[in-house]
Each structure stands twice: as structure tokens, then as C-alpha cells.
Amino acid sequence: MKQPLLLSWLLVALTATAQQLPVAPIRPVIDEYFGNKITDPYRWMEKPSNPELDQYLKGQGDYTRTTLDGLPRRKELLKHIVSLDTDAPSPSGRVERLVGDKYLYLKSLPGQQTPSLFLRKGLLGTETLLVDPSHFNTSTQRYSISYFVPSPDDNYIAYAIAANGSEKPTLHILNLVTRQDLPETIDRMDWEYARPEWHPDGHSFFYTRMRQLAADAPATEYQKKKQVFRHVLNTDPATDQFILGFGASPAVAINEADTPIILTLTHTPSPYILARIKHGDAIEETVYRAPLDAISQPNVPWQKIYDRSDLIRQVVIHEDWLYLMTSKEAPRFKIIRTRLSHPDLAHAQTILAPSEAVLDAMSPALDGLYISQMRGGLDQTLRVTWDGSPKPERIQAPNVPACFVAGTNHLLPGAFITSAAWTGNGLVYLYEPATGRFTDTGFAPKHPVEAKAGLESHEVLARAKDGTMVPLSIVYKRGLKLNGKNPTLLTGYGSYGRIAYPYFNPLTVAWFDRGGVYAVAHVRGGGENGQEWHTAGQKLNKPNTWNDFIACAEYLIGKGYTASRYLAGEGTSAGGIMIGRAITERPDLFKAAIINVGMLDAVRFETTANGVPNIQEFGTATDSLGFRGLYQMSAVHHVKDGTRYPAVLLTTGINDRRVEPWQSAKMAARLQAASTSGKPILLRVDSRSGHGAGLGREQEQAKLADTYAFLLDQLTGRPD
User: What is the SS3 assignment for 385?
Assistant: First the structure.
């Protein structure tokens, strides 16, 4: 017989270990915002360098580890997931195409925890290992490659590595001729917005760097007053020339929370250099132009090309033309062009007019501009030639319903085109425009499990609370019975205008093989329906995000895919707002929830290192409307005592500086104190990770096994 669920959890607690669940001390702090008194019982968790929080997190993590290890399915799930990973040919990540039929890419070797950097001459050539990040490992630090940037002459590669998912990369420079690193390294590199940009001379580059702060500096200073420097190879970085930053030039308006980024035009003859000013996490930027030969002189004559009010989300330069993707009078975006030497946006030529399709990205090649767009939930690729004729050509990879541009080189014709689907991994093709031929590069080989998985997917629309139709993607094994009894995981995000693209992870077959349904709610706040879809889920409009998610859950129940007792919701990072508010608004709708590194105390988020840039997306508690919006989206403030909440697994990484661990700790403590359902509230703590970047292979396998074991235990009960 199956044990009653509450009793089964009690048996795990009794038989696995005597480990006790730590109870967080309650020390109320009352803040007043515009006449609203808000009580925070766990403000003590926010204290910097906090041994008490460290101890609490360790106790919660140990208890969760013991509990998850005691779940009957956990061992078999991990074994299955490891086999899926081990049996798979290793896909390559972010392939860079170089002149001379050379390719740079990241790839994991068998048994390797994080990818290494390889070089290959020819698609079928022998690959050469360039950088193995494990060589930097210590007994307590495991390194991963954050990014790599080749020089314009392909003689050097600037690459960044970071330890334990910290997203605090240090830059190294590899000489491709000698295969040795140069002696200098640069720390405090910007970890989110900017990568190095090589000077056309190939012997220097520009980079954006964080300031050196005192150990006791407020967290909110961390992302402020970033600076751009120029580094000359084989010199001491301490002597690098300061180029741009807060207060550096009266000609460039830079707020202390802005990120300055230099954009060089190494691919096309140009006397200019650009300065991009990124305003926190806002998509729209301000861009300036200056003569390249004046960049090292005092009083650089910067000229503004466009401001954030012009709603430009991407720029590409070809010869003397600026190609701009904008949402101005085009909520699903359009592409215009104007002269770099004489910019005039008011009279710019329209290259690609707005349509029902949502434009997503532009990528320049020798033969033209390659464009990714989304139409009806599927990715499409277009090409526009450089002659300025607005005659887009559809580029369609063979035998696939959807494909997008995965990369180009301005000096080479063609593009990497990647197919996309929820039911199988996409192939990476090299498209040759002269012949129209698509060549499978082998950089993303088919996983052997794909054919056996037998998956199908459907794109549907769910009616939201206000009548808006919300796109919903549903994936499951063929032959699924719509009997309302299928364990279902509904996920979503809904911030920054990001689009959730079709994507297949072979390891998720472990979920589908156990009868699971997987669904993605394309809620407002994302970018699936353009700029208006994004703004409809921002700030005071944020309730649309979780209301859309709730509507998608109700659709799955109404159509017989599942029922509340078999339904789980999931959100990650900013998606923590969505799932956190969904379960506090409708605790009856979900049997379980997964909250990964979630933003859960929105009212206090701007006090963190990453909070200042996010004011652009979520608002500020320093004004009344901003506070109202943040309070609405703050899940921890909407937990009510005496409520039957679903089972919840929260995850955090000790090195997370995007969403501080105390955000998850507060929510776990509040739910544990308030819930009367008897269902577990667990906080999974990884001491060797951050926000998710740089996770080792074994870490990913273990996290997925924990998630699926927890969900299946809650949604289907214990196996006989």
C-alpha cells in the first residue's frame, strides 16, 4: 500500500537522520512607505558578512539534503539522468566562426565538469584544446569559462574565468601562436553587460570594469560608477588608460548606475568608435560616436547618435550605415538605417517594416543582415542584403519547422542557422548563400534518446483574467491520455522582454519517461508578443505576469492534462516573482512549487548589489507608485499565516550576487512558519554555485534529480 503523503514525509524524517529543521528567529522591523507600515520579521538575514545567516542556511541545506536523499525515487532518477548525460555526444556551445575556415567553441569532454575552449580547422578537422578551466581549480574553487573574444587578426583570445559560479570573472589573454597566456590578468570585469572589445590594431582592447570597493562598502555601490579602460597587450593593467565612465566627459551623460561599453568596428573600415550607455537592465540604450584616432586624447568629441527615448534595442554597423532595431511606432519592432557619418533618425530608411512577427535579433555577415524573428511561437530566419533594398529573404533550414540565427562573421558570407523544437535538440547548420546549401556542422549532434523519447508539442492560447490570450507551449509523450491525472510541471519567466524559445534538454526525458507533462507559459513581461507584451508585465502591470501563469495552469486543468493535485509550478530568478505570487494568490491551485534563486522580497531587492540596475525593470520603493508595484510583486509579503500552502522546494547558491541567498531564506522561513498544509517547505543550498552560471555537470545532474524526485513524491505519491 502507498503511505499517506504526510506520513511518508514523517517516515523520511525519522528514518533518514535526526537532523532538525532550523527555525528562523523572528525579530520584527517595521518600515513605513508612504503611510504603509510593512513588518519584516527576518531583516536580520540581510546583514552583510552574517555568521547567523550562514549557520541558518547550512542547517536548512543539511536538512533538505537529508530529506531529498531519503526520497525513494531520487537514486534511480539520478542514475537515469547520469546515463542520459553520459550516453550523449557532447554538444558545443557558442561557436565562433573565424576567417580561414576555423572555429572556436566551448565543449565538455567525457567526465569534465565544465566546458573547455577548443579550436578546429575545418568542420571535419581535428580539434585542439586551448583552455581547460579545470587547470585553475583548487581544493575549494572550481572554475568555468564565462566568455571568450578573439582578436580581429585571430592571434589572441581574451577569455574570462570565474570560480564556483560567482560571476566575478578574471580576464586572461591567450596567444594563439605560442599557445601561452600573456603574463597579465584583469579582475573585477563586468559580469553581466559588457565583454572586451578589441581595438582594430589587434594589440589592445577596451573593457568595462567594476570599481575597487572597501570591504564594508554598501552592496548598492557594487554596480555603480563602472569604468572603461584600454589595455595594451604585455603591459601592466595598473597603467591602463581610463577612457570613459561616470563624470569622465561632459559630452557623455552617464548616471552612476549606468554601464558604459565601448563598441569597436573591427569588421568594417570606419574612422569611428561607439560608446554604448546601458541604463541598468533596460533594453533601450544611449549611443555616442567619436573619431577612433581621438579616443586616447583628452576631451574626446563624443556626439550622441540616439537616446533611450528612440527605443533602439540593437545596433549593427556596416560600412557607413547604422542598422537599428527599434520599437518606436512598431511594438513588434522594425529595422531602419541611417548614415553613421551623418545620423538622422527622423529620415531613416525602413529596411524591414513592422509586421505580425516579432523581430528578435540582427547578426551581420559579408553578404547581408541576418534576422531572427518569431511568428506563431516559431523562430524564423530572414536575410536582407546590404544594398538597402527592403526585400527580406526567408532562410529555412531543411526538414525543421523553426530555425534562428546562431552566429555570423561580418568578414564571411553565410551564417550558422540552428533548428529549434521542444521535442528534440536543434542541429547547427552552416548556410552558404551562394549555393543555398545547408551543411550540418556536427556542433550539436542528435541525442540518441530523442527518437526513443516519442515527444510531441502543441502551441495553444489560454484566456487570462482580463481576457488576454496567453501563449502556452505543452510537451508530452505521444499517446498521453487527457484524464486529468498526469504529473505536470508548468514553468515561466515574464521579465526583461525575454522570449522563451523552443528548447530541448535530453536530461528532461527522465521526467517524460515517468509520465510527466512539461508546459511553458509565455506570460506578459516577456517578449513573445513584442514590446507591448513586455511593458504589460512591468512595474504596476506586474500582476499580469502571475495572473497569466494562473490562467495557463487553469487551462491545463480544464483541458484534462492534469488536476491541481498533480500540478506543480516553477519559476527561476525574476520568475520567482511569478511563481511566488501564483502560490500566494492561489495556494489551492498547485500541489507543489519549485522556486530557483528567486526574487521573492521585491520591496527590499534594490538594497542588494544587483538591485540598482533592476530599478529600470521593477521600480523603486523610493516613490509611492514604485513602492506599490514592488509590494504587489513581493511574494514574501503576501504569505498569510494559517494557509495551506503547497509543497515548495526553494534553491539558492551561496555565491549568488544577482539574487542574494537571503531572498530565498526569507521565503522559506515565512512559508515554514505560516503553512498549515503539513507539506514540506525545503531550502536547497549549494555552497559551490551562484545564480546558475558555471554549474558543473554533476551539480546539474544532482539538481535535476532532486527536483524530479521532490515533484514526483508530491504529485504521484510514493511507489509501492
Answer: coil
